Structures are given as C-alpha cells and as structure tokens.
Amino acid sequence: MRNFRKPSVGLLKPLAFVFMTLSFLSSCDQSEHEGYSLTETKLHYRIHSLGDGEKRAEEGDVVLANIAIKDMHDSLLYSNAFGAYQSAYRLTPIKNGGLNEALSLLYEGDSASFIVEGKRLDLDGINGEKKYNGKYAKYKMDIRLNRLFDPEQQEEERDKSDWIQDMEMNEQILLNNFLKEKQISQEQLLDGIYYLQHQEGEGHQIEGWETVLVHYQASFVNGVMFDDTYIFKDPLEFELGKPDQVIEGFMIGLKQMKVGGQASFVIPSQKAFGEEGSSTGIVPPYTTVVYDVELVGIK
C-alpha cells in the first residue's frame, strides 16, 4: 500500500499529483466504516489533517503523540490530549493493523483516526495502557503525531539531556558552596531566591507597577562582576511589573525593599537567565547570579 501524504506545493505538477492520488486510492480496500479507508492488514483509517513533516515514521524511530482510545460507541477509555505529557512510542517492524502500523503511516503534524481490531491493539509500549489490549472486539484511536526522532536524533537528545543534567548539577554545587561560604541559610529563601537585607530603608515600599530607580552591582558566585550601574552615575529606571524589563528574581527581591534600602539577591538560573543564558552571552546557561541592590527612589 502507498503511504498517504500531501504533495509539497510547487514540487509536483498537477498531472503527477492526480496519478499519485488515483494510484493510492486503488491500492486500498473500501472500509465498512463510513469515511474510512482500509489497509491490506485491515487497519481502518481516516485522515483529518496533514502536517508539515517531510519524513514518515519508520522502524526504530521514537514518536511523541497525543492518543485517544474509545470503544465503538465513542466512550473515551484513555486520552493524554489534556495532560501535560505525550505518549512516547518506539516503532517496531510489526505491521499487524495495530498501533505500531497506525503510527508508521504518519508524518510529523498529521492527525488521523483509526479503527483497530481488539486482538491487534498493541499498547504495551505506552506506560500502563496495555490493560486495554483485547478488552473489546474493536477500538477507535485518534492520533496526532507531534514529534519524530530517528536514531541519530535520539542520540543527540540523549547527549543534550546529559549536558543539561551536568550543567544543572554544576550550578547546584557552586550555589551550595557559595551559600555555605557566605553562611546563607534556607530561612532566607524567598520565592526561589535568597534575599539578604543589609539596610531596611525608611521610605516607601514598592507595591508593584511603579517606576523605580535602582543601583546595583551584578556578579557570579565566584565574585566576578559582569554589570555595575554605579559607573554610569545615574541609576537604572524602569517600570516594575512590566514584561521583559528585568529578570524574575530581581523583581521578587525588589518588592521586599523600601526606598533607601540595600539588599543582596542570590538568584538561581530558574529565576534568572535560565537554560539559554543572557541574550548578550555574558551570563552562561544554568548560572546563578548575585545582585547587590540599592533602591534609590520610586516615582
């Protein structure tokens, strides 16, 4: 049977497209279920939408997909469409009219429905869902294939994952050493940052969405400074709460301060520049930063 796929615009002439379409239709049997076509292995399928992927899933690939399983009366048995995760499934050579074959017909972004004989429903590759195998005579499956990783991409993802874990671990080690050296306790942890007050201040406390005047010196936990407003004499002026003005941890610390106050913020990467680092490249990914801050005024 020929795989179903929309032609790339401009790559196929109209006559060739018509020929391919007719060839595809003639290679598939008519399904007894209205709106469905049938493969040689008796897998009923209906295409809803075609994605932009250029490679069809094949043996050895890992696919990330949203999958819904229903009985023939459309009662939902299982779905991950509303969760924060997708089902990961590694394709095998099996083409028996089950889930494996259904996925092997799809490209990234494709959505389709399938009707599967109960004895051919092979959900062993999806955590905890093999309990549905063979429970009913037939099932309906709605699938959207979101991502596809071939073996080479899988290796790249594993390397990336190992690198991220190493970076995160290294940051945590450096942060713990810094906290121990400076005798900073977990009691000073506030909404994901360590807030160290040096001088309380006697003026107005920030209430949010106010224009503030701030001096600061920014450094890494090894003491190397990477930013300093004092060298420009004029303090930094910005509207607190306005998106993309300052990092999240800086806002958290400032909201604790009064005019005239001085404090230090120890900000882990989750509340600072994250997994990408700063846009300037000065702050690397997964890097804790320290800000020594003076709240000069509020407008």
Structure, described:
This protein is α+β, with helices and mostly antiparallel strands. The protein folds into 2 domains: 14-152, Chitinase A, domain 3, CATH 3.10.50.40; 161-298, Chitinase A, domain 3 (Roll), CATH 3.10.50.40. Helix content is 19%, strand content 30%. It has helices spanning 14-26, 99-104, 151-181, 248-254, and strands at residues 29-30, 37-38, 44-49, 62-70, 76-79, 87-90, 111-117, 138-149, 189-190, 193-199, 211-220, 225-228, 236-239, 262-267, 289-298. The strands form 2 sheets. Strands 1, 2, 3, 4, 5, 6, 7 and 8 form an 8-stranded antiparallel β-sheet that branches. The longest helix has 31 residues, at 151-181. The radius of gyration is 29 Å and the shape is elongated.
Strand share of the residues? 25-35%
CATH architecture of the largest domain: Roll
List unreliable stretches of 5+ residues: 1-27
Q: Over all CA atoms, what is the radius of gyration? A: 29 Å
Shape, please? elongated
Termini distance? 71 Å
CATH topology of the largest domain: Chitinase A, domain 3
**CATH class of the largest domain, please?**
Alpha Beta
Our count of domains comes out at 2
Structural class: alpha+beta
Number of beta-strand segments? 15
Mean of all residue-level pLDDT scores: 79
Q: What letter string, H or E per element, gives the SSE order?
A: HEEEEEEHEEHEEEEEHEE
The largest sheet, given as strand count, sense and whether it forms a barrel, is: 8 strands, antiparallel
Helical segment tally? 4
